[in-house]
Amino acid sequence: MKPLIFLFVLVICGHALGQTSSFNLGGRSGGMGGASVTLGDEYSLFNNIGGLGRLENHAAFAAYQNRYGVTEFQVIGAGAVYASNFGNTGVGFYKFGDDLYSEQRIHLAFSNKFQMVSLGVGLDLLQYNISTVGTKRALAIQFGGIAEISPALRFGAHIHNLNQAKINDETGERAPTVMKAGISYLPSKELILTAEIEKDLDFDEVFKAGIEYEIVENVYLRTGISTEPFLGAFGLGFHPKNFKFDYAFSNESRLGNIHEISFAYSFDK
Questions:
Q1: What are the structural domains of the chain?
Q2: What is the dihedral of CA 112, 115, 116, 119, to 10 degrees?
Q3: Which of 12, 21, 89, 238 is 20 to 30 A away from residue 2, measured at CA?
Q4: pLDDT for residue 21
Q5: pLDDT (tens digit per residue) in 33-74
Q6: Residue-level pLDDT at 63
Q7: Do the beta carbons of residue 243 and residue 62 sit within 8 Å?
Q8: CA distances from 141 to 41, 122, 130 (A)
């Protein structure tokens, strides 16, 4: 079974890497089809580090994705944010795959909020491992921000691998460089509408759109879509006091279902 899965990885990996190289994580993002570039929460550490500056408390969090029912395609991620009056610092870990093929990311990020704008910068250690080839590493720089254009309108932008880091000096192969930008509209405190465009330099643009609605206090209903390939998503969130629990289900038209569960806990400064 393992060799068959490995061959499957080799066939789809070139496509899958381009679609997942932004490392989006968290049930909130997953339930909104990945349209999270304007959201400022704990998972901004993975989705747009500019959003980290909007956090007011320390936080610890973890997430798990089951992709397509294939154990070898599972994703795990975890991180922590330290909030201070001088800005917020985050550290995180992300892993996709198993011993045959895996992608790992360890990164450090710093973000701060200046009036209506929050900006963040980060340094990532990327590691790619193929059992028959070996391990390749690269250092990537990322930058992002969120601006409140008005109380009801926000703009977000993020770029990962700004320096176009090389994975292999001999072949000149580089880690994916991904740019995304979007807006969110908040017609009320219970409702968020988001839309964004994501562009990997080596692939077509991806359009994402999502909705989050607080149906009762601390309970959230979400849905969203993403293109290239088409993905439809649905999610639920329960956020009592300092604890957050989020679940997302999505169906990717070419490969199947994705389940994601995430947790977060915030600590007062």
A1: 2-267 (2.40.160.60)
A2: -20
A3: 21
A4: 53
A5: 999 999 999 999 999 999 999 999 999 999 999 999 888 889
A6: 98
A7: no
A8: 21, 6, 24
Whole-number pLDDT of residue 134 = 86
Residues composing the chain? 269
Write out residues in the chain with pLDDT < 70, as ranges: 1-22
Q: Give me the pLDDT at residue 77, please.
A: 97
**SS3 assignment for the chain:** CHHHHHHHHHHHHHHHHHHHCCCCCCHHHHHCCCCCCCCCCCCHHHHCHHHHHHCCCEEEEEEEEEECCCHHHCEEEEEEEEEECCEEEEEEEEEEECCCEEEEEEEEEEEEEECCEEEEEEEEEEEEEECCCEEEEEEEEEEEEEEEEECCEEEEEEEECCCCCEEECCCCEECCCEEEEEEEEEEECCEEEEEEEEEECCCCCEEEEEEEEEEECCEEEEEEEECCCCEEEEEEEECCCCEEEEEEEEEECCCEEEEEEEEEEEECC
Amino acid letter for position 221: L
Q: Which residue has the tokens 């066939």?
A: 11
Q: pTM for the whole thing? A: 0.89
